[in-house]
Design brief:
heterodimer; A: 385 residues; alpha/beta; Peroxisomal Thiolase, Chain A, domain 1; 14 helices; 11 strands; 38% helix; globular; B: 131 residues; mainly beta; five-stranded antiparallel beta sheet; three-stranded antiparallel beta sheet; 2 helices; 41% strand
């Protein structure tokens, strides 16, 4: 198996972008990544997209983006694992390169979410749950995570304030990220006073609806030093796992087994553990998610996610900074693009290019992406080469 | 959109609460499945789930999907039935502030969706407080 490096990363504009289509968004991110890498061609494309069909009535995303990038007839494949679609695309691209099938591969994700109204977006996202035994009863994604939050609060004593502090921290970090969709800082009082979406989760506990795309260029490490403009970042660990799609089948509603399993594989491959990380990006689609992911990654003991956030352990300058980019909460969450946008942040940190939110001397970072209520998860570990 | 065949396929589970019990390890699966997730067994007997249980966790949906907008706000819960099987359904006939974890509930046959833009008229179980 060949060692793989990330040599370029790029994002499109993110936000409520009525003037940009799904294809425009991906082309913009891809051009930025290719420019960042300094390469003039790629051999294959893997693109994550959760539900172009429900959001934009567009499937067949692989061929669409290859066509509009002007690179047909190279192979292009869309991956789908709900909100972990881009994480899955990244892992697929790694396997294409480490196996020797391809050398220079473009990978990324895209979601165009604002061509439907709020009810349409809620229904599209609900398609990542069990359609017949969850969505059928009228539950929404905030509702599913709200049920997990209430169970976590009952079991471990996690407080409503601790959930709110995740949002406060991530908006603080996002205020230092020029790319963030919602870069404003928020106070705990604002979070706790915001509109209720699904008790106990309020609107400021939820990541936003975002149009956006992400991209990266990967190649064999030994080739990277010859072709890349910047110092390559090595991918040392990769894991992916699944869990029951419906919450009612989970053995423990308060623990994300798929994230733990994906992390175990990634840590093993990288020869490191949760104590060896300098910076972490996690899938904070809701504030409770960040707390549960921290526990599943082993950054804290089970049940200690809330207290760790309250103690500032995961803030910039804390023991282990989490979501320096602002996370999904502040940076935005174009669902099919998020996984590679997290890779973008880790690469930016490891290159020392993160500006006001830079973690000093960061040499090893982890990105965790998940789909549904955690039925899909990917974990990647990146290191300064 | 919910269509006739899609709804009809699930009627044994929705009208009669039918589940599958693995004949090798005894695990009950709702809805029934072909392969036991515990022991990989492939033989099942059909069992009917009990209609009483306790509330494990819940939420109150205030921002609803298009098909449920007219019903909001409404509670959705995970209920632990008397035989240990956990199911998801709405919790009705009570105000949000009356809901408590662990409270006893009973399943009743209720309307899930009315006819209209959402699709067809659909019935299934909802939980109500056991008083």
């Amino acid at each position: 198996m060949r060692d793989v490096a990330v040599i370029g990363v790029g994002l499109s504009a993110w936000g409520e972008l009525w003037d940009r289509s799904l294809r425009d968004l991906f082309v913009e991110a891809a051009l930025n990544a290719v420019e960042d890498a300094g390469v003039d061609s790629v051999e294959a494309i893997f693109v994550g997209c959760m539900t172009g069909g429900l959001f934009a009535q567009q499937e067949h995303i692989g061929a669409l983006v290859a066509d509009y990038l002007g690179v047909a007839p190279i192979p292009a494949t869309r991956t789908e694992s709900a909100c972990a679609s881009a994480g899955a695309a990244f892992r697929t691209a790694l396997m294409a390169v480490d196996s020797g099938n391809h050398d220079v591969v473009l990978v990324g994700g895209v979601e165009k979410m604002t061509d439907v109204d709020g009810g349409g977006a809620t229904a599209a996202l609900a398609a990542a749950s069990d359609q017949e035994y969850e969505a059928f009863h009228g539950v929404t994604f905030p509702g599913l995570y709200a049920m997990m939050a209430r169970a976590h609060m009952a079991k471990y004593g996690t407080t409503r304030e601790q959930l709110g502090l995740v949002a406060v921290k991530n908006h603080e970090n996002g205020s230092k990220n020029p790319h963030a969709q919602f870069p404003m800082k928020v106070t705990l009082e604002q979070v706790l006073g915001s509109v209720m979406v699904a008790d106990p989760l309020r609107i400021l506990d939820c990541s936003p609806i975002t149009d956006g795309a992400s991209a990266a260029v990967v190649c064999p490490l030994e080739m990277a030093e010859k072709i890349a403009k910047k110092a390559p970042v090595r991918v040392t660990g990769s894991g992916q796992a699944t869990d029951s799609i419906a919450l009612h089948q989970r053995k423990d509603l308060t623990f994300l087994e798929s994230t733990a399993a994906a992390a175990a594989r990634a840590y093993d491959m990288a020869g490191c553990g949760p104590g060896d990380l300098d910076v972490v990006e996690v899938h904070d689609c809701f504030t409770i998610s960040e707390i549960m992911v921290m526990e599943a990654l082993g950054l804290v003991e089970k049940g200690q996610g809330g207290p760790a956030v309250e103690a500032g352990e995961t803030a910039l300058g804390g023991r282990i900074p989490v979501n320096t980019s602002g996370g999904l909460k502040s940076k935005g969450h174009p669902v099919g693009a998020t996984g590679v946008a997290q890779i973008h942040e880790i690469v930016t940190q490891l290159r020392g290019e993160a500006g006001d939110r830079q973690v000093a001397g960061a040499r090893r970072g982890l990105a965790q992406n998940m789909g549904g209520t955690g039925a899909s998860a990917t974990v990647h570990i990146l290191e300064v080469a | 959109m919910l269509t006739t065949a899609r709804f009809w396929r699930e009627t044994p589970q929705r009208y009669r609460m039918e589940a599958g019990r693995c004949t090798s390890c005894g695990k009950v699966w709702y809805p029934p499945r072909r392969i036991c997730g515990e022991c990989k067994g492939r033989e099942f007997e059909t069992v009917r789930l009990p209609d009483e249980g306790t509330l494990y966790t819940y939420t109150v949906i205030r921002v609803a999907p298009t098909a449920f907008v007219d019903q909001a706000p409404y509670a959705v819960a995970l209920v632990d039935l008397a035989d240990g099987t956990r199911i998801m359904c709405q919790l009705v006939d009570c105000e949000p502030e009356e809901i408590e974890l662990g409270m006893p509930v009973r399943l009743e046959f209720r309307r899930i969706l009315g006819e209209g833009e959402a699709g067809m008229l659909a019935y299934a179980h909802k939980a109500v407080p056991k008083r």
